[in-house]
Structure formats: structure tokens, C-alpha cells
Specification:
DNA polymerase, domain 1, mainly alpha
Amino acid sequence: MAHPIKDKFIDHMELFGLTKETQKGYISAVRCLPTHYQTSPEHLSNDQVRDYFQHLLLEKKLAHSSCKAYLAGITYFYRHICGWEVDDRFGLPPRRLGKKLPAVLSMEEVHRLLRCIDNLKHRVILKTIYSAGLRASEAISHVGYSTQKAATQMTG
């Protein structure tokens, strides 16, 4: 990237409060364009940028998450520095993530797990949490709230 446009890019990012790490990532993403096309990024066409993303995905075999990081920097550059309307993500298709289902224990595994707990109070707490279907974070926040409430009541 030529220095005047790079300086303008950095000044804009600093003015809008982007962190140094974000700036570094955005500059790195935009720097790859002139390396690939041997011309300054502000002189590239929309189609050339689209082709670059196809190159990243299909030829360089970058992960979709890496391409999204490049997309963020390049989109920021073209919207804010070059004044382009960028609405189509330069042809980078959205990635549909399948919903991952949690592992479910069998009834025997649950019974075996709970039998390993010697402390009766702890076993009752875990049985209650399990039977109520609470997530770990929900159980922790409830236990923390109950403990805090009990301590407040004891101190008056």
C-alpha cells in the first residue's frame, strides 16, 4: 500500500478508535491486494476484489474465518477511505454453521456420575441442577445469588 493512502487509512482508524490490533489486521488485509495485483488498492475494481476473495478461498485454501477477517479490513478500507458502497461482501458467501448438539449422557451414566459424589449436600445440589435442566452458568449464578442473600440475612 502506498504511504499516503496508508497514512490516511491509519489516521481514519485512529480517529474512530479502532484498537491497534484491529488496525494491524485491517492493514495486513489491504496490503495483500496490491501484492496480488501489482497496483494500488484504490485503483482496483469491485470485480478484481471479488476475484481476490475467490483466489483466497479456492486457490490459497484459506479458512472461511480468515477470509472474513480479510473482508472486514478490505470492506472498511473501501467504505471509509475510497467511499465505495460495499453491500455484497465482495461475493464472499456467508458460511452457514450447523448447530452442534451437546453430548447427552445416558441415564446409567448420570446415575454412575452422581453415585461418585460422597458429600450428600453436593449430590443433592447436582441432582437438583440436573433435574431442573440448568446450564452451568445458570446454576453458578443462582448459587452465588443464594449464598450472597444468605450472608446478607445472617449479618442483619
